[in-house]
């Protein structure tokens, strides 16, 4: 069965950096695009970034563009999110999610999430 | 401010039916498939409906979806207390080249 397990969350000071990982199993990771979606405490879902199956194209929300970088290592079945210049408003649970089909916005499997807290 | 608009909350009694609306534009709902996600308290979102009206394996037929123009609707019949959750619509926005979600609707089963 499909499993997505995020890690790397924690407490970081404003302006700091953090790298999240998402270990995938149960499907052919190298054949599917992947997303990062976040949810601030008590708020709704906010899409963060997407990377195509081969890493050839990457898309970002305006709120993180220039600060966050999505990447993947298909040999390790792992998705990453490098987060720099972190702000208080980046505090959220970060989910990785598998893309079912490019251009549909259909995220068919989600991880359990990892909490990032930006605070001094 | 979400790109897709949902009512903040809906409620109904056990056994009744409820609908949740999701309004967008021609660049998102109007020209792309809509998905719906259920987020039970303290858990990750789960895909409930995809391609406007299809259910993944394991999702009961009490859940249904439809789309007309730039709006979509999630329907839930035979409400159960276990259906209490936040529900989100989502789709691809062709103009923005990104995924967009609604703000979420909290369902209360009275």
Feature tags:
heterodimer; A: 120 residues; mainly beta; seven-stranded mixed β-sheet; four-stranded antiparallel β-sheet; B: 110 residues; six-stranded mixed β-sheet; three-stranded antiparallel β-sheet; 9 strands; 0% helix; globular
Describe this protein's structure.
Chain A is mostly beta strands. Chain A has strands spanning 3-7, 10-12, 18-25, 34-39, 45-51, 58-60, 68-73, 78-83, 92-101, 106-110, 114-118. Chain A is globular and about 40 Å long. The model of chain A has no long low-confidence stretch (mean pLDDT 96). Chain B has strands at 9-12, 18-23, 34-39, 46-49, 63-68, 71-76, 85-93, 98-101, 105-109. In chain B, strand 5 (63-68) and strand 6 (71-76) form a beta hairpin. By secondary structure, chain B is mainly beta. In chain B, the strands form two sheets. In chain B, strands 1, 3, 4, 7, 8 and 9 form a six-stranded mixed beta sheet that branches. In chain B, strands 2-6-5 form a three-stranded antiparallel beta sheet, with no helix packed on it. The relative contact order of chain B is 0.33. Chains A and B meet through strand 5, strand 9 and strand 10 of A and strand 3, strand 7 and strand 8 of B.
SSE map:
The complex is a heterodimer of chains A (120) and B (110).
Chain A: E1 3-7, E2 10-12, E3 18-25, E4 34-39, E5 45-51, E6 58-60, E7 68-73, E8 78-83, E9 92-101, E10 106-110, E11 114-118
Parallel strand pairs in A: 2-11
Antiparallel strand pairs in A: 1-3, 3-8, 4-5, 4-9, 5-6, 7-8, 9-10, 9-11
Chain B: E1 9-12, E2 18-23, E3 34-39, E4 46-49, E5 63-68, E6 71-76, E7 85-93, E8 98-101, E9 105-109
Parallel strand pairs in B: 1-9
Antiparallel strand pairs in B: 2-6, 3-4, 3-7, 5-6, 7-8, 7-9
